[in-house]
Write a structure and sequence with these properties.
The protein contains no helices and ten strands. With 93 residues, it is mainly β. Strands 3-4-5 form a three-stranded antiparallel β-sheet, with no helix packed on it. Strands 8-9-10 form a three-stranded antiparallel β-sheet, with no helix packed on it. It starts with a strand and ends with a strand.
């Protein structure tokens, strides 16, 4: 089974044991994670947004419900999410 990357269209193999909500990497897109769903026997994928921590530069994968103005934690600190030009960023509070 496979799923298409919604960004580049690349076919990504869905490994055995994959469950709804799991994340897969697109090898053709730089740093994109795909959140996969099994919809009636067909796999679909949406982009799983990520944001870099301003302090440690770790990539934090955001929940599906994330939106600008939400707060996230990393490195023992809190950050507010912003969304501009199609990407999220984390700003220290």
């Amino acid at each position: 089974m496979s799923v298409r990357c919604p960004d580049c269209g690349e076919s990504i193999k869905v490994p055995p044991g994959t469950r709804c909500g799991d994340l897969l990497e697109c090898s053709s897109c730089a740093g994109h994670a795909l959140r996969v769903r099994d919809e009636g026997g067909q796999w679909s994928a949406t982009l799983a947004y990520r944001v870099s921590c301003p302090d440690c530069e770790r990539a934090v994968t955001l929940s599906e419900e994330a939106k600008a103005g939400d707060e996230i934690d990393c490195c023992g600190r809190r950050y507010r999410l912003t969304f501009d030009y199609g990407a999220y960023a984390a700003e220290p509070l």
